[in-house]
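Convert to structure. Protein one:
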Amino acid sequence: MGILGRIHSVESFGTVDGPGIRYVLFLQGCGLRCLYCHNPDTWDISSGRLVDSEQMEKEILSYRNFIRSGGVTISGGEPLLQPAFVEDLLNRCQMQGIHTAVDTAGSVPLAVSKPVIDAADMLLLDVKSLDDSLCLQLTGQGPEHTLETLDYCESTQKRVWLRHVLVPGLTLEKSLLEELADYLADFSCIEVIELLPFHKMGEFKWKELNLKYTLAHTPEPSAEELHMVQEIFDKRRLPYLLKEA
């Protein structure tokens, strides 16, 4: 018998959540309320399917041949809200020789998340904004825990793929992106910065949940805006990947 956790869903052939082909486990529960969230149905930590880590280990092992080039990514929601379950599952996977990643916004205190970070092979870390007021507007929480997480990864040289969403009128502003690029340039633990253009693919879920989607009239980034982003990160010679909208 393993440790109990609540999951939202799984993707057995993931190609965008870490290196290689991956088994992606989406956990239930998130303390953030990101305006552009495409999975608001993961917010409620009391919902989803109750499983135990031993059960999930067996399910993951049944896909072992398919994920040999990649591994397992534990995402959410915010997986760090279920640290005991995640840590145990990470340890189980690593005992089987399976590469592990945690996809997180680093939105919980390091005192809670540290054992999980230590157990993972790498982090996919979503930085919403460096600006306190903008981060609060975007998510309902400031950036302090996220930045604390990144600092810890630097101190331990934990492998990090950093993610940042480009929202016109919010995060997609030249001065903010220049500040972010300058800030990230000091971190040697960051292998790549994934720049993710805003999209509305999850808008229908907000409507289904009777939630007000405040970005309904926000456009996707223009070609000119994305070119500006490229110039900023090229100028600083940062390792970045500008994803398709």
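Protein two, convert as well:
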Amino acid sequence: MNKLFLAISLACISFLASGIAHAQSEQQIRTELQKKIGANTKIKSVTASPISGIYEVLVGNDVFYTDANSKYLIQGEIVELATGKNITEQRHADLNRIKWSELSPTNAFKTVRGNGSRQLAVFSDPNCGYCKRLEKSLQQLDNVTIYTYLIPILSADSAMKSKQIWCSADPQKAYIDWMVNGIAPSGKSDCTTPLDKNMAFAKTYGITGTPTLFFTDGSRFPGAVQISDIEKKFSSIK
């Protein structure tokens, strides 16, 4: 028993030592690479990739790779040939994921069709052409609840339209009237709105373009996504 205990203890010490050395190596790579790329580009983390001797470098939510000597900075994708899995693409998806519970429904207006069982959040600017294209496509969805968060990021007029939409008697109708039917919002714009909160949320989670969609599993789809892709995503969410 004593010999077994000693063997287990030595194995644990070896494992811990390996882990410490590994962490030190990653920190050293990060330090050396940071010196070379300059202080203006902040490295968030350096971690081992699935390829021996290659390390993932995270700058914001952008993924790069480097070697153990910090000699090269590699921009590209790692694909696992046995499965066809794009590891870099999956990493990007994970980095851009949010917790659905962090969205506040009170800062959006809600559209319910059918039984409303499938949920979707859309961040939109009323002067965004791609948002208008997406909104017309979304009319085809059934059994869905859509939360629309206005973020006026394109112009001062975007802010004015967003306020007029939110301050209308029926914000959801005013939004659809404008985005789908081309009926410009009018009326007051001096009510209390959640626009500042939505803009703060967008800044925190790196929502820099519209439209941006989120699903209940936290995944993010940027741009005017095809309805077929939205349906496919809904089908994949358990």
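The domain at 37-95 is CATH 3.10.450.70 (Nuclear Transport Factor 2; Chain: A,). The chain has two domains: 37-95, 100-236.
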